[in-house]
């Protein structure tokens, strides 16, 4: 069980580092994934009675 726990911790840290690396890579390229002139489109879904 100790080996399984260590393996899961290593995998979790690797995934976390990958996410942080991807975030900083995207942030340096562009500040917002959506262009400012387009804006953000929101679709409201309401249940019909």
Count the helices. How many?
Answer: 1
Helix content: 55-70%
Radius of gyration equals 20 Å
In total, how many domains does the architecture comprise?
A: 1
Tag the structure with descriptive keywords.
single chain, mainly alpha, 49 residues
Summarize the structure.
By secondary structure, the protein is mainly alpha-helical. It contains one helix and no strands.
Walkthrough of the structure:
With about 50 residues, this protein is mainly alpha-helical. The chain has one domain. Helices cover about 55% and strands about 0% of the residues. The protein contains one helix and no strands. The longest helix has 28 residues, at about 1-30. The chain is elongated, with a radius of gyration of 20 Å.
Write the topology of this structure.
Blueprint: H1 2-29
